[in-house]
Specification:
This protein has about 600 residues and is of the alpha/beta class. The strands form five sheets. An eight-stranded antiparallel β-sheet has the order 3-2-4-1-10-9-11-15. A seven-stranded antiparallel β-sheet has the order 5-6-7-8-12-13-14, with helices on one face. Helix 4 packs across helix 5 and helix 14 (about 430-450) packs parallel to helix 18. It binds 2-deoxy-2-amino glucitol-6-phosphate. 2-deoxy-2-amino glucitol-6-phosphate binds near residues 303, 304, 306 and 490. The site of 2-deoxy-2-amino glucitol-6-phosphate (AGP) has 15 residues, from helix 9.
Length: about 600
């Protein structure tokens, strides 16, 4: 989504720090960028459509290098309210230029507020909801910067991460948040930084803290105070745990491919710390605290790729732990009438830990005092902080939009949770040991598959001719077909549907002809024979079949061969094929794989 970066400190050319920060996060999807810099006397504003390099050029021209600016705010915007124009680019200001601000999130009551302001002769240069906040500040100005901000925060309906400065209050800055993330940090020399994104702070801060909903940070004369819902509070600071930003793709053509290749070692790392394969013991700390819990129902919650991972969790829970389970899309679950008992465990899955839809459900569940578990990649993120128990996926920073390594890392952690709960319940010892044996081989199987991509590349040459695809599945392959279909959509912009093979005859067969290829995930699991019948159904209608299996499939047009393993473990392998199919097709079609259109890495608005 949009990004915020603020600096105040000893640097005399704040614009340099801001531009460096913006360049580091260029891989994110944004349409325009802007910054303001200031000192005790003045505030200067520069905005540009398109790339940060456009902004950088304008800054060179419009800000005199001899002038000194000790603070500044930068913002990257992805258009929501209003088109991609300089006027809609942040920072925004009011009619009297008394307040300047950047804003992430969406002000839900902005339309009504805007009409009220227009009735009072306020004029608007753009269409954003953020500009309304700036004029609201002027409307309610009472001579005290802090009180004025507090007043308007009672009027606007969140979500927001807001940073406000005013030429009337030089040296002051106020930040407030509800819903959208905001992190505050400093280095040893008392340079202060604030950002919507931890990545942005890497290398700048030694200590950081996460602002919570309702927190208000006020900087004045190089001192800061934080209030939480109006009450002064001491924020706990922690060491910045990431020291360097991952900025090199090494010998890989794309960052996405690099992350695909990282998967084997990530899974090794996850198991190294959490599984004693020799003695067949699960070591994760989170499990110790749960020893005495007896969960009767598991609900997985997530969005996109994380939802897909949760869908596999549901099947593992049913099959291995013998516990009824479901997996829910966060943006839908929020509006449901839920009837579960207090022995339900809610498992929140999220790479970023900042996805607004998932956080909303988490808050709702916490209000009911139900048990929550987080499977999260970003340490310190909102979901990791709010859940009762959890496992970090330890996949390293996943920077690129199309999630790959986060997914297999999530699967690894979810399977460990299912094994832990299974061991306490229905899972036979022999099955438990068989799974651990096969799990230990997963990284090598992935490496073997990645070692030779010739066939998938050749196939992608063929697939680029089609506009529509089916991804077909049964049982354990459901999340994998979903995920493969999502990957294809995200980076090739081609249409695909994930469908259960058994449902074809109930409608979708009508679509099958030589123009729609079907990728069918059919390893030799307990439903293999059934999948063979589905393949025949498709072939009988001249459909093209790409089978993903450990056995050459007679009658299919292509078989992508995968290593042999057991039913519960195949998904770790078949998903790699799905990722590679999407990657190579997108590459052959010359798509911008690392920056897919319209998408953001972390979706912090609802
Ligand atoms: C996957 O490639 C996506 N970019 C997207 O679906 C993502 O998984 C989703 O937005 C959830 O994000 P999270 O894991 O950070 O919560």
């Amino acid at each position: 989504m949009c990004g915020i970066f603020w600096y105040q400190g000893k640097e005399t050319h704040a614009q340099n720090i801001l531009l460096n920060g913006l360049k580091r996060l260029e891989y994110r999807w944004y349409d325009s960028a802007g910054l303001l810099v200031g000192n005790q006397k003045e505030i200067k504003l520069v905005k540009a459509i398109g790339k940060v390099s456009n902004l950088s050029e304008k800054v060179q021209k419009e800000i005199n290098a001899e002038e000194q600016f000790s603070f500044g705010i930068a913002h990257t915007r992805r258009a929501t309210h209003g088109g991609i124009t300089e006027n809609n680019t942040h920072p925004h200001y009011d009619n009297k230029q008394q307040f300047y601000l950047v804003h992430n999130g969406i002000i839900e009551n902005y339309h009504k507020l805007k009409q009220e302001l227009i009735a009072k002769w306020y004029e608007f240069y753009g269409q954003t909801d953020s500009e309304v906040i700036a004029n609201l500040l002027t409307e309610h100005r009472n001579g005290n910067f802090l009180e004025t901000v507090e007043k308007i925060l009672q009027i606007i309906k969140w979500a927001y991460a807001l940073l406000i400065v005013s030429p009337l209050a030089p040296g002051e800055m106020i930040a407030a948040k509800i819903g959208s993330p905001l992190l505050f940090g400093h280095d040893k020399d008392n340079n202060f930084f604030l950002s919507s994104d931890k990545q942005w702070l890497i290398g700048y801060v030694d200590q950081l803290t996460y602002l919570e909903d309702g927190d208000l940070l006020h900087i004045k004369n190089n001192e800061y105070t934080v209030t939480s819902k109006g009450i002064p509070t001491q924020k706990p600071f922690e060491e910045m745990d990431i020291k360097e930003i991952e900025s090199s793709k090494g010998n890989y053509k794309h960052f996405m491919l690099k992350e695909i290749f990282e998967q084997a070692n990530i899974i090794r790392r996850i198991f190294k710390w959490r599984v004693d394969f020799q003695n067949k013991i699960l070591n994760a700390e989170a499990f110790h605290g749960m020893q005495n819990e007896n969960f009767e129902h598991i609900v997985f919650i997530g969005c996109g790729t994380s939802y897909n991972a949760g869908s596999l969790g549901k099947l593992w829970m049913e099959n291995l732990a013998g516990i009824p389970a479901s997996c829910e899309i966060a943006s839908e679950y929020e509006y449901r009438n839920i009837n579960v008992n207090s022995k339900t465990l809610y498992v929140f899955i999220s790479q970023s830990g900042e996805t607004a839809d998932s956080i909303e459900v988490l808050k709702m569940i916490k209000e009911k005092w139900w048990h929550t578990f987080g499977i999260v990649n970003v340490v310190g993120s909102t979901i990791s902080r709010l859940t009762d128990y959890g496992l970090f996926t330890r996949a390293g920073a996943e920077i690129w939009v199309a999630s790959t390594k986060a997914f297999t890392a999530q699967l690894s952690c979810i399977l460990l949770l299912a094994l832990f709960l299974g061991k306490k319940r229905a899972l036979p010892k022999a099955k438990y040991e068989q799974i651990l044996r096969e799990l230990a081989k997963v990284p090598t199987m992935i490496e073997d598959l990645l070692a030779d991509q010739t066939q998938i590349r050749e196939l992608a040459q063929e697939l680029k001719k089609y506009n529509n695809f089916f991804f077909l599945w049964r049982h354990y392959q459901f999340p994998i077909a979903n995920e493969s279909s999502l990957k294809l959509k995200e980076i090739t912009y081609l249409h695909s549907e994930s469908y259960p093979s058994g449902e074809l005859k109930h409608g979708p067969l009508a679509l099958i002809d030589e123009k729609i290829p079907s990728v069918i995930f059919c390893p030799q699991d307990f439903l293999f024979e059934k999948n063979l019948s589905s393949i025949q159904e498709i072939k009988a209608r001249n459909g093209k079949v790409i089978a993903v299996s450990d056995k050459e499939i007679e009658g299919s047009d292509y078989t992508i061969k995968i290593p042999k393993t057991i039913d519960d473990i195949y998904p770790f392998i078949t998903v790699i094929v799905g990722q590679l199919l999407a990657y190579h097709t997108a590459d052959i079609l010359w798509k911008n794989i690392d920056k897919p259109r319209n998408l953001a890495k972390s979706v912090t608005v609802k």
